[in-house]
Structure prediction request, 228 residues.
Amino acid sequence: AQKVTQAQTEISVVEKEDVTLDCVYETRDTTYYLFWYKQPPSGELVFLIRRNSFDEQNEISGRYSWNFQKSTSSFNFTITASQVVDSAVYFCALSGYTGGFKTIFGAGTRLFVKA
Amino acid sequence: DAGVTQSPTHLIKTRGQQVTLRCSPKSGHDTVSWYQQALGQGPQFIFQYYEEEERQRGNFPDRFSGHQFPNYSSELNVNALLLGDSALYLCASSLPAGGNEQFFGPGTRLTVL
Prediction:
């Protein structure tokens, strides 16, 4: 079975703080993809990043960075110098070969960034 | 470049009724997936359509059915509505290869009374 766990339900930080959102996944596939999506209050999910199981390189995009570690089945997301506009619900998701690449989402982490 | 559009935005129905939700994919995309998102939870995969056929299905009863048209737009039908069907229904489009990123529409908020 495939599963995504986001243990942090809610996180509250003050603007300019760094924050890391945790994601742990379970799959028996060797070929799979991991994603992060952002859901602002408007409700529309926005794609942030995709990582395939054969590429463990960390990635940085502006204030965002992602740390993928197969050894711990984790795909964590860090926001550096958070801003109020980062307030949203963030979802980690998994898409694996065995499941026909159906996308399984975690329960999400709600991030509050206070001014 | 138009993104994913969904209609209607909001819908109120009563138990036992039937509902049809509509989705137009992003230009260039031919694969449409539907998700149910209950309040405070992550999206749950309902099914995916490609080439007018249901390609994958999640753990949802047969009351949930769909259709894809030749222009790649799609419909989600739910029969015999239950109170528990109240949720945000999200449509996502993508290219057909497995593992591609999905582009989501704004969703349809369904309330069942």
